[in-house]
Structures are given as C-alpha cells and as structure tokens.
Amino acid sequence: MKKQKKNNNTQLLVKLSLASFVAILSAIGIFSGAYYLLEHFEVKIDETWWAIIVAGIASIVVGIVLSITVNLYFFNPIKDLLDVTNRVAHGDFSVQLKEKKKKNGEIKKSEMSMLTHHFNVMVNELDKNKTLKSDFVTNVSHEFKTPLANIKGHAELIKSCSDKARVDEYCDDIISAVSNLTELTSNILRLSKLENHAILQPNDFRLDEQIRQAIIVLESKWSEKNINLNIDLDEVTIFYDEALFCQVWQNLISNAIKFTEDNGEINIMLKKYDEEAVFTIRDNGIGMSEEVKGHIFDKFYQGDTSRAKEGNGLGLALVKKILDNSRCSIEVESKECEGATFTVRIPI
C-alpha cells in the first residue's frame, strides 16, 4: 500500500509539474509574441503597461505554485482519506493514515492533521470492537458448551442407573450446571443492557445498609470457609441506581470470599469524605500477578483456572461497567500470595 501511495504521489507531482511548465511556456510565448508585434508596429508602451504585463506573468506563476501546493497538501490527503474510508466501509480496520507531527512528537494543530488523527483513533476503536465481538462470541459458545455437555452426560447416566444415591448425585450436578447457565445468561443480559446505555434509575439509599445486606446474603459462603470479617462502615446516603449497586457489592464480596483460603480474613470499609464515599475490600487470599491484574475486568477472563468452575468471568466486567456508567471508579492493588485490595470511589 505504501509503495502504491508513493507511486500515486510521484505521478501527481509529475503531472502538476508538466502542467505548470506548459502554462509558464504558454504565458511566455503569448507575452513574447505580443511584445514582438508591438515592436514591429512601433507601438510605444509606457512603464505602467509593462508593470501590468510583468504582474500578469508573476500572477500566473504564483497561481501555478499555489495550485501545486494546494493539491499536494490538501487534495492529496483528502484523496488518501477517501481511499481508506472506502476500505473501512468494506470491513478493513487495519488501515492507518500517516499523521503529521512536530519534532517533539506532538500532533500538529491544523484541521487536516487533527482530522487524520481522529480518523486513526476511530479505526483503532472499530478494530478493537471487532476483536472483542469475535472473542465474546467464542467465549459465550465455550461457556455454554461445557455445562450443556455436563447436563447431557448426567442425563444419559440417570437413564441407565438404578442406584438412587447415584441418581441424586447426578441430579445435583445437573441442577448446578443449570444454575451456572442461568447466572451466565443473566450476566450477559445485564452487560448487554449496560453496554447499550440502559437508562439508570437513581434514587436515594443508604449505601452502608446495602453493603451489610450483601454481606448477610453471602453469609453461607464466608461461614463455610470460617472467614473472619472486619467491617467498618460509615453512614452514607447516595443517589444512584440501587439495584445495580447491589450487584457491585455482591460481586466484590463474593470474589474476595472465593479467593480467600479457609480461616482467612477480609476487611470491608466504607468511609465518607466531603466529595466522595470510598469503599475498600481487602483480603489475605492468593492475590494475583501483574498480568492477571491487567485483565481482571475483561469479559470471561479468569486468572485462576482452578476456580473457573466457580464463576464465568463476567462478575468484575459487570462491576466495571456499572461503575463506569455511574461515573464512579474502581482500582485494584495486589501481589501474588499477598491478597488483593479493591477500592471504589463514589462521588457524592
């Protein structure tokens, strides 16, 4: 493509140079002929007319130079933009226009330079969305395939099994697989609504009470692992979508429980400041590497594959989307074998 573009530029320059040369020769020929005729018929021309003639020749030359400049620096980039736009329209998001930058690396502030930069940003985003869409379909297919195969296998075993204890065990496995599918479907629908900018329904509610309710709902999980909870919650009232925020706390607390070993410890704090409320949840579990930390908010990503059966990799993606849509932020700090700390900042 670069070679073709270079050839196109060269051909354009040759054509413009040839046209300019012909125009200049024509102008010189016309004025030379006019001067010869005037001399032949002994017609006297004062200095004013000679100045007009010279100015005319200069205007033609300047006009040609400006024409070349405009074509090279304005129309040619537009032609390139039209070419790559056509390729984007046909699904090719790998195209990029050459950006004009200053010596210090900053983009020039001219309209054409800014247009080129924004076009490249747009194409990059389209390319990312295309990749995400492809990965999403692949991951959803995989996530559905595993429990469906599990359900089918156990159903076939039940048909040929007369042992009631075994049948009960197989039925429990089927119920568990169906529950996972139901949760997966619900999370996908929630994410879809949030990504399509579903209308939020904010109202005033006590954030500290909502967090307490989430802890109570998950009591069976942290009690089973004998996890010690240290809870310190300031009284905070906020104006956000109550139902969506409930999912945030349930996902974060459930995650902390999942990755904390038996007899571990989880600290849950909510502090109120002048302009924001800060929620912090810290566990002393397995922690995560820098690589895992960089992907934890990606859809279907599960850093610890040994616990993959306990979730579907959508919980934190859902949390991030809810907070982004609500103009809140979430940060994570973690090291391997040193636990993890999630901090949510909520403007009041």
Sum up the structure in keywords.
61% helix; two-stranded antiparallel sheet; five-stranded mixed sheet; elongated
Low-confidence stretches: 305-309
Kindly report how far apart the N and C termini lie. 53 Å
* Most strands sheet: 5 strands, mixed
**What is the molecular shape?**
elongated
Please count the helical segments: 9
Would you list the SSEs in sequence order as H and E? Answer: HHHHEHHEEHEEHHEE
Percentage beta strand? 5-15%
Rg from alpha-carbon coordinates: 35 Å
Helix content: 55-70%
Structure notes:
There is one protein chain. It is built from nine helices and seven strands, in the order ααααβααββαββααββ. The strands form two sheets. A five-stranded mixed beta sheet has the order 2-4-5-7-6, covered by helices on one side. The protein has a two-stranded antiparallel sheet with strand order 1-3. By secondary structure, the chain is an alpha+beta fold. Mean pLDDT is 76; it is low at 305-309.
